[in-house]
Amino acid sequence: MSVWIETDLCNGCKRCIKACPYDAIEMRGEKAFILERCTSCGSCISVCKQEAVKTDAVPRTIPDFSDWKGIWVFAEQRDGELLRVSLELLGKAKELGGELEQGVSAVILGKGIERLCDTLIRFGADTVHLVENESLRLYRTAAYTKVLARLVQQFRPSVLLMGATHLGRDLAPRLSRRIGVGLTADCTELSIDKTEKILLQTRPAFGGNVMATIANRYSRPQMATVRPGVMKTSEIPGQAGEVVCHDFKVEEKEIGTKVLELVREKKKKTDLSESNIIVAGGRGVGDRKGFVLLEELAELMGGELAGTRVAVEEGWISQDRQVGQTGHSVRPELYVACGISGAIQHRAGMMNSRYVAAINKDPRAPIFQVADWGIVGDLHEVVPEIIKQLKTGSWNKQQRGGGD
Ligand SMILES: Cc1cc2nc3c(=O)[nH]c(=O)nc-3n(C[C@H](O)[C@H](O)[C@H](O)COP(=O)(O)OP(=O)(O)OC[C@H]3O[C@@H](n4cnc5c(N)ncnc54)[C@H](O)[C@@H]3O)c2cc1C
Ligand code: SF4
Ligand code: SF4
């Protein structure tokens, strides 16, 4: 495609110069002139009221997708247990399906997992596509990709959602490449464009400084991965659904990999996305000893310890406890932020908390903008005081209005 200016039509208004993001137009005499660094992005075409900017590009037409219908959720299971994110996605799929007037399907792969279908139906699936096969018992990229690609080509869903888990982050790009569609990874919000009836997929971009909304007009299915803990589950009592069993054979020689052994990490599993109370610390905590204090507070409150990326980078907490854009998304009842500034990348992971309490010595710290309660002070004084009061019971008395 090339872009040029019909000088006879140009009146020298310079609107195109302002519109060009590449600084590729200059005035020569009274007329606009396009330079070699033009990328043919097309931004200058619509701003020219004289219709002097011309292009040889043929406008792209949107194919007819009327036979691509349904919202599909890839239901992830490990060792026969459903991951919560699959149920969260079904909740969202139900909402999207309602707007599009389309059904919701879950697709689940594995072996000995038939009993999970009832749960998927209860949480929103109208149909469950069940593929059971010994070669699918343990996740292997090639096997899962092959089966899902066949199902997608056969049933033509309009939308396909997966959890942005380790498995989802491996499988989704491979599948999207195989079926030749785009993929929006790590979404934090999904909605439907009311006019075009297409999926709007929102995710943090440019280091989390902006939220970008991406839509896919030209191919189906519209594929997205969604972070665990972002969407709400919704159980639908009495929901009816059907289970469709598929008998796909995947030969070992087509898969190319073998799982020889599963070695599980021995450390205590942290599941922040399931915690009701989270006590999180940031740079202001100062050192590992400071986190021992926060851990004590978390234990007294029956919660989990978490932190910012800084706390992880300093080695004060393990990576699996990081909250934020590149860590976990959490939605506890109470999030206690200690010595955390509240950078947008951190807030992206905790903004769905029901209540936020913040302790920070800087009254202008952005965390206070999202906090329901704020204590301006040194956490090394405030946290020991809270611990003391929790231990003596005086905190509870004060909450009931009977404190001394
Ligand atoms: C692409 C990208 C992804 C990122 N992903 C994440 C992510 O997933 N999670 C994340 O957390 N960050 C992430 N970050 C980093 C993020 O931008 C911030 O740098 C980080 O969250 C800041 O951490 P902090 O609040 O611990 O530290 P700071 O911003 O340095 O804040 C420390 C706060 O502690 C307060 N303080 C200091 N001493 C005390 C005291 N004694 N008592 C009370 N308050 C005190 C200070 O007033 C300050 O507000 C990401 C950045 C990028 C570019
Ligand atoms: S916007 Fe059109 S009329 Fe105005 S300077 Fe550019 S080409 Fe010329
Ligand atoms: S097509 Fe894009 S890059 Fe080229 S001149 Fe116009 S605005 Fe600039």
Which helices and strands occur, and which strands form pairs?
Layout: E1 3-5, H1 15-19, E2 25-28, E3 31-34, E4 53-55, E5 71-74, E6 77-78, E7 81-82, H2 84-100, E8 104-110, H3 116-122, E9 127-132, H4 141-155, E10 159-163, H5 166-179, E11 183-187, E12 189-192, E13 199-205, E14 210-215, E15 222-226, E16 242-246, H6 252-255, E17 277-281, H7 288-301, E18 304-307, H8 309-313, E19 334-338, H9 344-350, E20 355-360, E21 373-376, H10 379-392, H11 394-399
Parallel strand pairs: 5-8, 5-10, 8-9, 9-16, 10-15, 11-15, 17-18, 17-19, 19-20, 20-21
Antiparallel strand pairs: 1-4, 2-3, 6-7, 12-13, 13-14
Helix pairs in contact: 4-5, 7-10
The structure holds flavin-adenine dinucleotide and iron/sulfur cluster (2 copies).
Written description of the protein model:
With 404 residues, this protein is an alpha/beta fold. It folds into three domains: 3-55, Alpha-Beta Plaits, CATH 3.30.70.20; 71-255, Rossmann fold; 272-399, TPP-binding domain (Rossmann fold). Helix content is 27%, strand content 24%. The chain has eleven helices and 21 strands. It has helices spanning 15-19, 84-100, 116-122, 141-155, 166-179, 252-255, 288-301, 309-313, 344-350, 379-392, 394-399; strands at 3-5, 25-28, 31-34, 53-55, 71-74, 77-78, 81-82, 104-110, 127-132, 159-163, 183-187, 189-192, 199-205, 210-215, 222-226, 242-246, 277-281, 304-307, 334-338, 355-360, 373-376. The protein has a seven-stranded parallel β-sheet, sandwiched between helices. A five-stranded parallel β-sheet has the order 18-17-19-20-21. The chain has a three-stranded antiparallel β-sheet with strand order 12-13-14. Strand 2 (25-28) and strand 3 (31-34) form a beta hairpin. Helix 4 (141-155) crosses helix 5 and helix 7 packs parallel to helix 10. The termini are far apart. 38% of the residues are buried. The mean pLDDT is 92.
